[in-house]
Amino acid sequence: MTTAQDNSVLPRCSGCGISLQTTDTSKPGYVPEKAMQNDPVICQRCFRIKNYNESSSVTPDQDEFLRLLGQIGTKDALVIHIVDIFDFQGSVISGLQRFIGNNPVLLAVNKIDLLPKVSNWNKIRNWVQKQAKDAGLKVEDVILCSAKQNDGFDRLLEAIGQHRGDRDVYVVGATNVGKSTLINRLIRDYSDLEQELTTSRYPGTTLDMVNIPLDDGKFIVDTPGIMYPSRYTELVDTRDLGVLLPEKALKPAVYQLNEGQTLFFGGFARFDFIQGTGYHHSFTCFVSGRVPIHRTKLERADQLFAAHAGELLSPPTKDNIEKLPAWTRHEFRIAKGSHSDVFISGLGWVKVNSDQGSIIAVHAPKGVKVMVRDSLI
């Protein structure tokens, strides 16, 4: 007679941190019994992501995210909060302080390689500091970096050295901010361990705490990425993630619009210039180069979307658009003389260049964060 397997004695996946099990292929942590002899051991899900770039529908529960995050407040730790400069308002954890207590925080602003190379980095840093303060974050330092390009990484290591002391290092962030990529860089500098975390563009790659031992007996602890449904990247089909997420430096697209003109960003969202003083206004679009932009008259916009969503206005495909929530209209009045971005979480932003006042509207799936903010660039 067989007995139930005691999963408590099984190790954890070195890729995503989940407890391994050999009995149920449909549940997180499954690994074939013969693969348990490998060193290190990774679950079947991580194996498929690493070797075949496959996605998985297995993701942690949001309550579990918050439970794990809340554990940090009981520790003596240095917290590295990683955010995505392309999706700052979508990826920042505004309620972080209530979870981590008085532990010091370094704000690592990743993916700066996506910004135009002519960007003024001092202004970018000042912008980040103001946005972090507005979000209620108390940070020891702001580090602009690119884990992908290894930019700013020496500065991050220096900041960790200044603030860590004899603490463990906890790394937190939303999904798709480059958390695991950055931690893999830390492992190479702080640990002799032959281990790399699973990295991919799919949300929820890390499923549980991953503890990486450091040479001084402390740990780097990777936490699961927090999934915010207000980010477009959490809503789309996995095939559209590669379209939304830019891989190269953004090439700003400037449009001179008259009142009553509309821009469609594929079938993802719509931007209406409703009213403005003067003949025409200038708008600069910062989105992935794989998102096509289509200009039309505002009076034709509803009809155009109804007839051509998923075809002329794509991606997403018609089938994938139908899976998304219905669009909600957001109207904004841009004050005269302001320097503003109209931000759509996960898709990008539109900079309003005119010194004159204007009224604009954005149509996007219900729940996606749409807001006006101070201009980043």
Summarize the structure.
It comes from Paenibacillus yonginensis. The chain is 25% helix and 25% strand. It is an alpha+beta fold and 377 residues long.
What labels describe this entry?
GTP binding, five-stranded antiparallel sheet, alpha+beta, six-stranded mixed sheet, GTP-bd_ribosome_bgen_YqeH, Ribosome biogenesis GTPase YqeH, globular, about 375 residues, NOA1/YqeH-like_C, 3 domains, 11 helices, Rossmann fold
Rg calc: 22 Å
Largest sheet: 6 strands, mixed
What is the tally of helical segments? 11
- CATH architecture classification of the largest domain: 3-Layer(aba) Sandwich
Q: Give the termini distance in whole angstroms.
A: 68 Å
* Count of domains: 3
Provide the CATH top-level class of the largest domain. Alpha Beta
What is the number of E strands?
16
> What's the CATH superfamily of the largest domain, by name?
P-loop containing nucleotide triphosphate hydrolases
Write the layout of secondary structure elements.
Blueprint: H1 44-52, H2 62-70, E1 77-84, H3 88-91, H4 96-100, E2 105-110, H5 121-134, E3 141-144, H6 153-164, E4 168-173, H7 179-190, E5 210-213, E6 219-222, H8 232-235, H9 238-244, E7 253-257, E8 261-265, E9 269-276, E10 281-287, E11 293-297, H10 298-308, H11 318-323, E12 327-334, E13 340-344, E14 348-352, E15 358-365, E16 370-374
Parallel strand pairs: 1-2, 1-4, 2-3, 4-6
Antiparallel strand pairs: 5-6, 7-10, 8-9, 8-11, 9-15, 10-14, 12-15, 13-14, 13-16
